[in-house]
Amino acid sequence: MSFSTSTPPKITRRSATKLLGGAILSGFASAPLEAQQAAPATPAYTRLLTDEDIAFLEEMERAGCLYFTEQADPVTGQVLDRATNKTATGEFDQHFAASIAATGFGLTALCISDKRGYQDTARIKKQVITTLDFHLNKMPHEHGFFYHFSDVKTGRPLINVEVSSIDSAIFLCGVLTARAYFNDPEITALATQLYNRVDWPWMLNGGKTFSMGWLPETGFISTRWDHYSELMMLYLLAIGSPTHPISADSWSAFTRPPMTFGPYSYISGRDPLFIHQFSHAWFDFAGKRDAFANYFSNSITATRAHKAFCLGLKRGYTDDYWGVSASDWEHGYAAWGGPPLMGPVDGSVVPCAAAGSLPFLPHDCVRVLRALRDNFGKDAWGRYGFCDAFHPDLHWYDPDVLGIDLGIGVLMAENLRSAFVWDTFMQNPEPVAAMKACGFHSARQTTNPSEPKPTAIPSSDQPVAPSTNRPPHIVSPKLVDQP
Known about the structure:
Elements: E1 2-3, H1 13-19, H2 23-26, H3 33-38, H4 51-70, E2 82-84, E3 97-99, H5 100-116, H6 121-137, E4 141-142, E5 145-146, E6 149-151, E7 163-164, H7 165-182, H8 185-197, H9 200-204, E8 210-211, E9 213-215, E10 219-220, E11 224-225, H10 232-239, E12 258-261, E13 264-267, E14 288-289, H11 295-312, E15 327-329, E16 332-334, H12 351-355, H13 362-380, E17 381-382, E18 385-386, E19 390-391, E20 396-397, E21 400-402, H14 403-418, H15 420-425, H16 429-437, E22 441-442, E23 479-480
Antiparallel strand pairs: 1-23, 2-21, 3-6, 4-5, 7-9, 8-11, 9-10, 12-13, 14-22, 15-16, 17-18, 19-20
Helix pairs in contact: 4-5, 4-14, 5-6, 5-7, 5-14, 6-8, 7-8, 10-16
């Protein structure tokens, strides 16, 4: 989600999409890369990451985690949806829109900050407790679900903003991560009450698939989470609820549309790359499958296809410059990417596209991110890491960073390095029980070893209408959305 105080009204990521109308790591899921690094080097083994790669990821994580401490309100714990990146002081930004999803990413980033020693433990725990207490006892909600955007100081929902099912799920993933990591009685009590309060069947609105949200004036949004996307965390959290669960039958109620692009076949709607990343930030799908797919392997293939798509566009993309997902662009906001071609893809690059796929395609994603930092860091890198998007040939560099785009990069970088978020989140019994109820079991092979490496594949120049129908969101002035 993103809120701007200096631009005209914009559409949301979800309404924009409507209007447009790795494998190596799987075997290492429980073996931290630091441990591999500490082992004596021998010619018989090839390390996944070099010292230089690890140093870069450390810098990226530290910068990203800083956002979630400096740009969180000290009284409410809410995290700003966006903030200026080129700042020397780290003062609280002038933007005022908080994002419930960015706050969820922030709770997880605070766990990483503590693990990595970026901030004092007492300060971090105080922020976590402040955040959980405010959202439990003072933050407006409907049946436990939260509004998409709110005033960062008061928690009041912004005008014409929906109660969001998916963004509430992202927040709750952060809540459960904090509960498992700190193992603190107060944090545990607050987090458990937040999760147990959610009335999941209410958001089904009489169906088997979730509504995308609810508006006080008009009720439930008609569009539903009914085909494969970032929705897996939403369904699994609901199925695993100890107080208000939904039936595991809903897991098979959403469709899994087949996508073919060149030699790549996988499950995907006509959606940006982030849909293959968000649920994977917390739920550990590596080495597992259900009756339909191995979703970790599916995201590997989706990332390979996306890189090949970029290289085939003939718009300046190379092995050292690729990646487009829903983000800011020079003229506002775009739910863009592919395959197939969606939106006004013009040669801009969006760093979180590769950062969010770090565990899926480590070599390719680390390579492009390091190249972007080396080649364009003077303008594209700031206090919190990469700006949200940029186009060097047009001399355009987004002045802002977006909380959820920073968040997915931070979490996936840590998962690549140590599997920390996966291992911590999956200590919660509810996600484990939900995956079992949905039929997940061990799958030894996580990807097709004969699958081709990403190479340029020509794409049509005519954008298609994405298949995901995002909420027909009525936005308040100057509001820009991101999931």
